[in-house]
């Protein structure tokens, strides 16, 4: 098993800088997901790791050795592309054998490796078919099989499931997770789908505009986002955000007046930062849809009245979309089971103080998170 370190990686295309000071460690056998919106630089970073694209600055260290000047073919990594990149005129067997034949692997060894990989990926009955005779999921298995037979130091996946339908993506996610557990080989997985990252990765690296916003385990990013961007990107549906003003602070007790709810008493939170915040300062309160809830009657939690704009009923659970007064944002509240709430009705939404996050509005300012946030 291999390790990888990215140290202060920069990348420019002419005058445009697309990656800035990227530092990432991949431990032996670790599954690392690179996530972020389109254009954030995650695929470029993967190409730099693979050797298909040179970096402008920084070091790529594989198993303790700097490999910036080592060619892609000699790094011992295997890349699985979004487009599968299969040769249409070759059979499944020939596609999987092509790389091994190019490096002079003996035929019996090729047959053995392809046989084992095909059995693992349930391709053993499809070896004589061509890519045009396969489904999207089968083509993706062939692309993965072609990588497996090379016995790489690391697997690099560039949005491998984005061309598949929703049901097949879920199935392939499970298959890749099982494959990682069997092979125990490190994987770096690029995706814009944070659900894929949350369900598959040991560690997630969140990128925005070419910079790392936060690195950590899925639950670390979910429970303790370091800024509002990470909070909104991790979690589905995304975290709700409500503008607020600091109405007062006493030690770690923070009173916030929520915008659009001037007739409501302030929301009191216990924050884990003792730093003084000026009265009148603008902040943003974040609460996840699964932590807020619709309440009938009174509640011990802070409650705000909202008008329902839309209801999504999914059977076992659903989501209520409510209008926030004076804001273009909606507030989404998850509910369990089947609910009789209708669009246009008025509801009371409870916001548990322990589930709230508070973000400073000023760019680069520290994040204040509830001391008992989940």
Written account of the structure:
With 374 residues, the chain is of the alpha+beta class. Strand 7, helix 5 and strand 8 form a beta-alpha-beta unit. The chain contains 8 helices and 21 strands. The mean pLDDT is 91. The protein is 22% helix and 35% strand. The two termini are 35 Å apart. The chain has 2 domains: 226 residues, Rossmann fold (3-Layer(aba) Sandwich); 130 residues, OB fold (Dihydrolipoamide Acetyltransferase, E2P), CATH 2.40.50. Helix 2 packs across helix 3 and helix 2 packs parallel to helix 4. It has a 6-stranded mixed β-sheet, with helices on both faces. Strands 13-12-11-14-20-21 form a 6-stranded antiparallel β-sheet.
Quick take:
The chain has 374 residues and is α+β, with helices and mostly antiparallel strands.
Counted up, domains total 2
Structural class, from helix and strand content? alpha+beta
N→C terminal distance: 35 Å
Q: State the strand order across the main sheet.
A: 6-7-8-3-9-10
DSSP helical segment count: 8
- Top CATH class of the largest domain: Alpha Beta
CATH architecture of the largest domain: 3-Layer(aba) Sandwich
Low-confidence blocks of residues: none
Element-by-element helix/strand order = EEEHEEEHHHEHEHEEHHEEEEEEEEEEE
**β content, as a range?**
25-35%
Largest sheet: 6 strands, mixed
What gyration radius follows from the Cα positions, in whole Å? Answer: 25 Å
């Amino acid at each position: 098993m291999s390790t990888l370190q990215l140290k202060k990686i920069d990348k420019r295309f002419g005058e445009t800088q697309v990656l800035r000071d990227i530092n990432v460690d991949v431990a032996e056998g670790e599954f690392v997901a690179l996530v972020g919106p389109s254009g954030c630089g995650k695929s470029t970073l993967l190409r730099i790791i693979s050797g298909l694209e040179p970096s402008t600055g920084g070091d790529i260290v594989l198993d303790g050795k700097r490999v910036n000047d080592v060619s892609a073919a000699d790094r011992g990594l295997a890349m699985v592309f979004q487009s599968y990149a299969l040769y249409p005129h070759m059979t499944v067997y020939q596609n999987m054998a092509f790389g091994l034949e190019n490096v002079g692997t003996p035929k019996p060894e090729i047959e053995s490796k392809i046989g084992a990989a095909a059995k693992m990926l349930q391709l053993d009955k499809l070896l004589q078919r061509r890519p045009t005779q396969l489904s999207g999921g089968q083509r993706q298995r062939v692309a993965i099989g072609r990588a497996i037979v090379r016995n790489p130091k690391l697997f690099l996946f560039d949005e491998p499931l984005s061309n598949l339908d929703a049901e097949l993506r879920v199935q392939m996610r499970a298959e890749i997770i099982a494959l990682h557990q069997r092979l125990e080989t490190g994987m770096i997985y690029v995706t814009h789908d944070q659900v894929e990252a949350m369900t598959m990765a040991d560690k997630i690296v969140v990128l925005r505009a070419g910079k790392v916003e936060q690195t950590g385990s899925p639950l670390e990013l979910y429970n303790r986002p370091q800024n509002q961007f990470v909070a909104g990107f991790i979690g589905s549906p995304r975290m709700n955000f409500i503008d607020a003003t600091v109405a007062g602070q006493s030690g770690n007790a923070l009173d916030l007046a929520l915008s659009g709810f001037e007739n409501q008493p302030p929301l009191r939170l216990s924050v884990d930062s003792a730093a003084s915040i000026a009265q009148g300062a603008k902040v943003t309160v974040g609460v996840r849809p699964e932590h807020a809830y619709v309440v009938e009657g009174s509640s011990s939690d802070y409650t705000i009245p909202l008008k329902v704009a839309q209801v999504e009923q999914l059977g076992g659970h659903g989501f209520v979309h409510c209008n926030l007064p004076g804001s273009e944002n909606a507030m989404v509240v998850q509910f369990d089971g089947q609910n009789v709430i209708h669009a246009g009705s008025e509801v009371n939404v409870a916001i548990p103080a322990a589930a709230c996050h508070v973000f400073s509005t000023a760019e680069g300012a520290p994040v204040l998170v509830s001391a008992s946030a989940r």
